[in-house]
Amino acid sequence: MDDEWDADNVEAKFDLAMRSNKWEGEDEEEDVKKKTREEAERKAKEKEEALTPEERRAEMLRRQRLQEEADLRLAMETFGVTPEAAVGLDSMTPDTKEEFDQFSEALLKKINQFNKHAEFTTFAEELIKNIAVNLSSMSLKKVKTTVENLAIEKQKIEKGDKGKKNKGKGKAKLRVEGDNSHLNEYGDYGFDDEFNDFM
Asked: Would 64 be classed as within a structural domain?
């Protein structure tokens, strides 16, 4: 029985020791956290003071955007909407070739909705230029070759369409047979030019 009492007593002493040590040193940890926080705030303030007014505005807008994104995430979590449930271009973050292909399809679908608009050509030129700025020279050469080949093919198609439209608009020639075949020897005597307006 003494053994059982000693075992219970040891457990009780251990529990007492654990409870008494549980809060020991917490004030020190709080002081360290407070100093770290103060140091981070001081550095942030020094960094902010070194910024130009434009940089301050940009930083303020960046912080505002981050806050809005955090608020949106919180609202989505509150209402049980997961990021996977969100659809559209804004939710896409492509990483693999397949994902970039899907992103490309979605982007083209969105952009091509406006291809009949009068300002579309200017928009396309600016968009391509702005995208090309970030490409390496080798990638830019590949894009240039692709666009030039596309332009050549488009010109061929457009010329082919014009050729079909003009078909049959050539000069009419009279073919004489039989007794009047001698007229073919002398040509048209310039009558074509004179009577073109009439015909």
From this structure: no
pLDDT of residue 87: 61
In terms of C-beta density within 10 A (0-12 exposed, 13-18 middle, 19 or more buried), how is residue 192 classed?
Answer: middle
d(CA 186, CA 167): 28
Domain membership of residue 48 (yes or no) is no
Q: Among all chains, which residue has been given the structure tokens 């009949």?
A: 116
Domain containing 139 equals 119-160
State whether the Cα torsion 26-28-32-34 is positive or negative: positive
Phi, psi of 94 (to 5 degrees): -65, 145
Whether residue 140 is contained in a domain is answered as yes
Q: In angstroms, rounded to a whole number, what is the distance separating the alpha carbons of residues 53 and 8?
A: 70
pLDDT tens digits along 100-129:
898 889 888 889 888 898 999 999 899 989
Using DSSP's 3-state secondary structure scheme, residue 151 falls into helix
Residue 153 has a pLDDT of: 93
Q: Residue 176: what residue type? A: V
Buried b (16+ CB within 10 A) or exposed e, 11-48: eeeeeeeeeeeeeeeeeeeeeeeeeeeeeeeeeeeeee
- Residues in the chain predicted with pLDDT less than 50, given as ranges, are 1, 85, 189-191, 199
